[in-house]
Structures
1.
Amino acid sequence: MSQSDNPAAASPAASPADRAALLESLRWQKFPVLDDGFVALVDCMGDDAAVVQAARVSYGEGTRKVSDDRQLIRYLMRHAHTTPFEMAEIKFVIRVPMDCWRQWIRHRTASVNEYSTRYSLAIDSMQTTPGNEWRTQATNNRQGSAGLVAEDQGTRLTQAESDLQNNARRVYEERLSAGIAREQARKDLPLSTYTEAYWKIDLHNLFHFLALRMDAHAQLEIRRYAETIGHEIVSKLFPLCWEAFLDYRVEAMRLTRLDQGVIRRLAERGSPPPASHEDFLTAQDPSWVGLERSRERDECLAKLSVLGLVRS
Ligand SMILES: Cc1cc2nc3c(=O)[nH]c(=O)nc-3n(C[C@H](O)[C@H](O)[C@H](O)COP(=O)(O)OP(=O)(O)OC[C@H]3O[C@@H](n4cnc5c(N)ncnc54)[C@H](O)[C@@H]3O)c2cc1C
């Protein structure tokens, strides 16, 4: 294929030399996460231009007249035309506590190879929590946390954590010294124990992972990993795709039919927004009326607040 036949040649992407230099600067660089975890790029196939190149196969040459690469990528992201994003793949090596890994591994669309604690000694590192980072249980979300405990209580919790982790490690090592198989000796190690894995995923499925795990509803610990992958690595390797991902996934807002009804009723009232909280309550969808608690109503109110349509 000649240079002029290659749709990707129209891309404003970095030169091959710049791209190679960028990759070399990122590969194996350990971006720290939590107290002893990290994320590092091992390899990357493709770039923004690879996504564009694949898309132009389906849209043909005509596309070039109406849109540049950035516009095409943004169109693909907006309209969930996802397969071009599968043309790029990224391989990471990660070090992550087991409890976080348990959430991570639920994402089935990646290829994984994990450190074996049947074959090797369990990594001698457990995630620890500083006294000022113990979070209290959220009352409005059973899966979430809200606020922090007082620091003196946190200090006691951290001391207890340290005792428990040291004891668990001591028992593990005693079992090994007694000749117990590694596969059985490990069974009482805490979920805070770090593991390591190679994790390879295409860009489409990585964005799905990042959208779920960078979200405020995700647990803080895995959120830290997702944010590091996104901001430190993906944003540099795929600047145009990343920008579109932020605009149309991360920062986008879905308005349901019910949300739209509430907005319409607020607008019909004639009072220019922002309306008051009372206005919102009377404009609420009929299916929420009379309910003492409605998560959907709370979510709608949160969206309207972000949009500046409701004063609290
Ligand atoms: C905030 C939060 C809370 C959660 N809470 C819980 C919980 O309480 N309990 C719990 O068990 N899990 C929980 N999860 C995990 C969640 O249910 C998903 O398993 C996880 O997020 C992986 O999502 P996924 O299946 O979309 O991703 P992937 O496995 O990466 O799959 C990506 C997409 O591929 C498709 N796909 C993959 N495999 C299949 C398949 N076999 N059949 C059909 N389609 C497939 C689907 O479209 C899927 O969305 C939670 C996740 C989040 C983000």
2.
Amino acid sequence: MKTYKVIVAGATGMVGRKMLQVLEERKFPVGELIPMASARSAGNTVSFNGKIWNVQELNEENIKKSGAEIALFSAGGSVSKEFAPICAKYGILVIDNSSAWRMDPNVPLVVPEVNREKIFSGSKIIANPNCSTIQMVVVLKPLHDKYKIKRVVVSTYQSVTGAGQKGHDQLIKEWNEEEIKEMKFPHQISFNAIPHIDDFLDSGYTKEEMKMVNETKKIMGDNSIEVSPTCVRIPTIGGHSESVNIEFEKSFELDEVKKILSNAPGIIVQDKPMEKIYPMPIWAHDKDETFVGRIRRDETVKNGLNLWVVSDNIRKGAATNAVQIAEEFIKGK
Ligand SMILES: NC(=O)c1ccc[n+]([C@@H]2O[C@H](COP(=O)([O-])OP(=O)(O)OC[C@H]3O[C@@H](n4cnc5c(N)ncnc54)[C@H](OP(=O)(O)O)[C@@H]3O)[C@@H](O)[C@H]2O)c1
């Protein structure tokens, strides 16, 4: 079997470590792993497939001599902006987790369950969408195909892990009443809900909210879908949750909606509210699928549907989606 030389840029971070786990679990054919991070981590090691691998500094010289074919990036936007084109120059396919390239018209933005075909556009950089957007579009796509979505109102309940290792650590330190030298969130996160993720824009929306608006249109390939988002950080760890209200052009039957979602790729329907079964971060944690429940009609509008959608933001929202793109790429058209 052909194997690949794979760079994982940001291998010491929260998403990068999960990428290593997911590559291993899904038996991606890695012949040689090239873990990279900042100069701070050069010389450290990571373990992968039962071996210890040295972390290298991410720089042009190391990229050039790596001979890699695929690079999975999760080292932040400015790092991707600088080094993704350098990888592309050496013929390496980059799958980038940051927001740096997502809205570039020449870069495909891919969720394999939704727009797998874009992987083969010829671009050497493929962008992985924002975590909150990925889990939502996995659910929207099969419903849009059948009933055509007019408008989505989404409110998110996002895990502290969405802010990386430092976000996770702030919550744990607050719980343990340890001193926090550098606050990752603008306020205490324990026992709190903060309606503020990423920077505010003049419009009053945050950048995180506008990612949900713009990325949804691009991935679904339909600019007519209106998205009205509110993104909130809450003190959970296992995944992001979303209340999703959808208005369709066409009428629907609830039983048919449940059947469509049950048969759609990457989705598990958890919808037995009388038995207290509905998606929750503690159940979605460390799973690859997107979980949907509380499936019910919005009785206040024509053709309205309410859903509760939960997924592990570090897996499907980041690492798993990136590894799936790599899997589809090596499978080919
Ligand atoms: N957390 C999520 O839910 C999520 C979801 C989707 C996408 N993402 C995106 O994935 C990226 C990483 O997020 P994360 O949560 O894993 O953050 P993180 O835990 O803070 O990890 C950051 C990683 O980037 C590396 N890095 C930082 N500066 C670097 C530089 N100048 N050169 C090379 N490597 C550098 C770090 O290496 P050192 O250890 O050496 O500092 C570390 O490996 C971000 O772009 C984020 O937006 C995150």
